[in-house]
Amino acid sequence: MTAPLDVPGSATEADPEAVLAGADRKAIQGRSLGQIAWMRLKRDKIALAGAGVIVFLVLVALFAPLIVKFLGHPPLEFHREKIDQSTLTPTGAFGGMSWDYLFGVEPLWGRDIFSRIVYGARISLLIAFLATLLSVVIGTVLGVVAGYFGGWVDTVISRAMDVFLAFPLLVFAIALAGVVPDQAFGMSGDTLRVSLLVFIIGFFSWPYIGRIVRGQTLSLREREFIDAARSLGARGPYIIFRELLPNLIAPILIYATLVIPTNILFEAALSFLGVGVRPPTPTWGGMLAEAARFYTVPHFAIFPGLAIFVTVLAFNLFGDGLRDALDPRGR
Amino acid sequence: MKRKPAVATFAVTAALALGLSACGGTSTDSPKESAGAGGGSAAPAQAEFNAAMSKVFNPSTKKGGTLKFVNSGDWDSLDPADTYYGYSWNFMRLYGRALTVFKAAPGAEGATVAPDLAKDLGKPSADFKTWTYTLREGLKYEDGTPITSKDVAYAVARAFDKETFPNGPTYLNEMLNWPKDYKGVYKSKDVDFSSAIETPDDSTIVFHLKQAYSGFDYITQMSPTMPVPKAKDTGAKYREHVISSGPYMFEKNEIGKGFALVRNPNWDAATDPNRPALPDRIEVQTNVNADDLDNRLLSGDIHVDVAGTGVQPAAMSKILPDPALKARADNPTLQRLWYTSVSPTVKPLDNIDCRKAVQYAADKTGYQAAYGGEFSGGAIATSLMPPSVPGAAKIDLYPSGADGKGDVAKAKEHLAACGQPNGFETNIAYRAERPKEKATAEALQESLARVGIKLTLKPYPQADYFSLYAGKPPFVVENKLGLAVNGWGSDYPDGYGFLQQMVDSRVIRETGGSSNVSVRIPDVDKMLDESLLEADAKKREPMWAAIDKRVMEEAVILPGVWAKSLLVRGKGVTNVFISDGQQMYDYVAMGVE
Question: Which of B438, B454, B485 to mutate to test the interface with A (most CBs of A within 10 A)?
Fold first, then answer.
């Protein structure tokens, strides 16, 4: 970490004595890596905005029932009185938007789009977070093992990564999600579908993290502090957990933040294709697929599209900011 | 290229074909203007909604002009042996003549069969297993060679080969008494098939059926009996240049883009009372964007959307609110029922009262909305047979209440009688690729929940829906598929053709593959067999209504809607009408101003 971090206020700059005193005090304080990163992040307004949106979305997902209770209608409730029965499109301007129905109503059944977007956030975020967690765990374990032990272990794991990366993931996901029965592995309904999607998305995206972790491990392995630890008699597990992993946290964190939006898009794509969570449970991708049938009512496509767009953008901006903060050389 | 024979997928293809065909009006009142196709003595055309439903719109006998057809897709094949679209059978009559033909007349009369190549309708033997047709005199192909009964026999035998012609109908393959291991004229080259078809002389043809069938004239009306000259047969390539036996012949055929038909100089109007043959030329464009097609049809640039399945949603939202455009539209009811099977093999639906509760609780207006509403979705169905199938009677055993949204009180009564006063849980299967079926499942989920019947949605892939899932009895029981969204349409307007595949318990196979998944009523099987032996069409019709009623009594089918389509009459087209036989505009009768 070479960059000078402190940006003293202009008032102190005007007074050389004060600068000197300030410099002294800072020299005494010292800062951890986390503190330094946090300082950089705080200065990145765009990343903070992204983080703000993410926090907001998570809160929305967590408190979905409460929000819908006050601002909407149950997501599965039909409101056919809001629909023109000859064209099956919403009556009223802008797809039936009103204070009662903030985002308007769906064509055909008149379900509240606002509530469905709010509940859709639960599925999207849940699957994206869990899938990312799964791929981070698998990727980190295999990446460190491959990088640290090298030799045939590395060869086997690296080839496995190549195989996984070459896999036609989308096609495989469609096939797998299509053939799994309604009850399997002791689960059924939405629980099964969510677990299945988490497994598919997480299990097939680990090599992206695995490769990065392996590369980092390879370079860290040759560093002096590892040599020092070895010469003091430290063994593999100790070195991995106490020396390597703490130094790998930054790249893992960065990459995880950037994988989440990809996973959100992937989940939306699978739902769009009809192999995601089963209807009538609302999902953003599923709503988009239905909206395609009613292209004469554009608002129906706009809201789920916007939801996906905003979420993915927020994660990407935050991820970029986080990378800049943790690893300024990558700038 | 080798494909599997289409025989196994018969029921499914049949359903598909009808989905793509269209129509049959709600022509309960007998048409005053059944002037045949050529009748031109009527009042000037008064454009109004449904004007071509039960009478001829803009009648004329004026010859000449070019009639322009456009197709948003393309024909499965132009070969009479290899096509299974309703519109294709309708259109093919312009360049081919079968033994019999649907009368070119609006409404119900258009669903009656008239002789075409044959002098008269088929003469059955006493047991309905042998049918004899005699050909007219003076029939010729476009090149002037005479058409003989041997050409018809050859055409039927060649259509047998479903590897060469995978698309065509298979009725004759299954009905006739073919020699064992017969494979069609190409693979079983000089095999004698006289056990199925005999041609004692050049003008007589005799069909031998395996089982009695009193409605055989409906079968000979289909395209595989259109004659094919053996000398000109090029097998799978014959579709590129079909030799005409009708009033028009191919001038050019640019595959993938379109083709043009011109008058056939060797067609003699004296031999053909069914075809007025008004236009001089017929032009067809294929693979045109569907929305573009609708716009051109509305602007008058083209005359007919040949597929006859109705306009796209975008055009519909333009037509319905505009009185001038709506006056150019027709909204026929098709011979197709969208329904939900209620399976008595799944508990607690084995109890008839639980099934009746489902009938009463279902919101039919929701069912209608799921399929697209009143105009493109269909009319709310209360029994199996659509009104345009001859013999259909009004049967409404489970009235839906005043607003059509179901009778919740009655449903609860029956739930109590069934011992499930608080409702029960079951699953509903539907085809994942079909948004309308998904919407149906959602609508039923919502309306049945009102009485405590909790449905879980189970989408299955459409390709294997009947072979592996909803059509496979053990799977239905194991996965508790109490309800299954389903649909059926017949290939020809005949009660037997409409009902048999849907209600005959003998078509249910333990290994899967049947679209009948819930009807197992011995009475019904018996009634179907009896109808086959009844010679008089007028006596057959009430038998089918009785079958319909019997099935409804058992409440094993929840009828949803009788499909409808919204068709637009082109500008300047004369002699426009919808016949119950074609279920869309009759293309043989049309002319241009």
Answer: B438
Nearest to B317 among A83, A109, A296 (CB): A296
C-beta atoms of A296 and B439 within 8 A: no
Do you know the residue count of chain B? 593
**What pLDDT score does B43 carry?**
46
Phi/psi at A61 (nearest 5 deg)? Answer: -65, -45
> Which tokens in the block code for residue B560?
């949803």
Identify whether B289 is part of a domain.
no
Closest partner residue to B369 (CB to CB) among A88, A182, A280 is A88
* pLDDT tens-place string over residues B378-414: 899 999 999 888 888 899 999 988 888 899 999 999 9
Mean pLDDT across chain A: 83
Residue A273 distance to chain B (closest CA, Å): 9
Question: What are B216-266's pLDDT values in tens digits?
Answer: 999 999 999 999 999 999 988 999 999 999 999 999 899 889 999 999 999
Question: Is the whole model's pTM more than 0.90, yes or no?
Answer: no
Give the amino acid at A180: V
Residue B351 lies in domain: 333-564
* CATH number, domain with residue B480: 3.10.105.10
Query: What are the distances in angstroms from CA B352 to CA A208, B364, B419, B503?
Result: 58, 20, 11, 17
Are B234 and B216 in contact by the 8 Å Cβ rule? The answer is no
Q: Give the domains, in start order, of chain A with CATH numbers.
A: 43-326 (1.10.3720.10)
On the question of pLDDT at A129 being above 80, the answer is yes
Interface of B with A (CB under 8 A): 313-314, 316-317, 320, 365-366, 369-370, 372-375, 427, 432-433, 435, 438-439, 441-443, 445-446, 456-459, 461, 479
Tell me the chain A residues in contact with residue B433 when contact means C-beta distances shorter than 8 Å: 274
Contact state of B313 with A294 under an 8 Å Cβ cutoff: yes
Query: pLDDT tens digits for B257-303?
Result: 999 999 999 999 999 999 999 999 999 999 998 889 999 999 999 99
Same domain assignment for residues B484 and B585: no
Is the pLDDT assigned to residue A77 strictly greater than 90? no
- Residue A223: both structure tokens together: 């560093």
Largest CA-CA distance found in chain A, in angstroms, rounded: 82
CA angle B155-B158-B164, nearest 5°? 135
Determine, yes or no, domain membership for B492.
yes
Prediction ipTM score: 0.73
User: What pLDDT was estimated at residue B434?
Assistant: 84
Q: How many Å apart are CA B586 and CA B274, to the nearest integer?
A: 12
Does the beta-carbon distance from A278 to B459 stay under 8 Å? Answer: yes
Cα radius of gyration rounded to whole Å, chain A = 25
If you average pLDDT over residues B121-144, what whole number do you get?
A: 93
* Region B46-52 average pLDDT: 86
Rounded CA-CA distance B139/B271 in Å is: 7
Q: Characterize A236-270 residue by residue with b for buried, 16 or more Cβ atoms within 10 angstroms of its Cβ, and e for exposed.
A: eeebbeebbeeebebbbbbbbbbbbbbbbbbbbbb
Asked whether residue B251 falls in the same domain as residue B141, the answer is yes
- Among residues B227, B213, B247, the alpha carbon closest in space to that of B122 is found at B213
pLDDT above 90 for B426: yes
Task: Look at chain A and count its residues.
Answer: 331
Report the number of distinct structural domains present in chain B.
2
* Structural tokens at position B477: 């029981």
CA distance B373 to chain A (A): 6
Half-sphere exposure of B63 (CA within 13 A, CB side): 6
Q: Please tell me the distance from the alpha carbon of residue B276 to that of residue B63, in angstroms, as a whole number.
A: 9
Is the pLDDT at B8 greater than 90, yes or no? no
**Alpha-carbon span B554 to B344, nearest angstrom:** 9
Give the DSSP H or E segment for B560: strand B557-564
